[in-house]
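Figure 2 data, in text form.
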Amino acid sequence: MIIGAIAFYAPHYLVYTHKPVKSDSIVLFLGSKFTPRKEEAFKLIEDGYARYLIIPAYGKVSDAGLFTGQPGEPKLRPDTAKARGGAASALQYPKYFEDTHIEVLEAKKMIDKAGFKSAIFVSSPYHMRRISIIAKQVFGTNDYQLTFVPSRFEEYKGGLWFLNGRDLKFVTGEYLKIAWFMVYRFFPQNNYR
């Protein structure tokens, strides 16, 4: 009975979410389902929650004034390639760091450089718990206002998720990545913040 309940609710734990609040920036994470994540980030900008979009994997901080397109069809103007920042180099981090951890570390550098104190983190629903765990470790708890908003444009499946091979792989993978982060964050040479 207990194992069944844990299996049934396992994806619900991963979907960590806050109501969006006005912030300095939105941090957008890359992934296999980037379009729904991008749509969420643009919707939050369109709704006035932040003026700046940070894409740490690309080393970009873009002003919302650089966006064009009709509501629901956001597009980056071609000149956003000139946005300030520099692409992250995974080579500067230990090989055992996974991509999300590197993106959070790069986001912090970019947020600090811009002088921001608040950010909305946007990704897929199942990805949000891991992002929040890593972000709280990297950013600390007092100096920043961090908000976590999963994409409403990506389908979230609860219930019998374990009967779908893709969902089973994704949910299991998220738990394994959380467990790995919880282990390696205590490694002696892990002094990245």
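Caption note: The longest strand covers residues 118-123.
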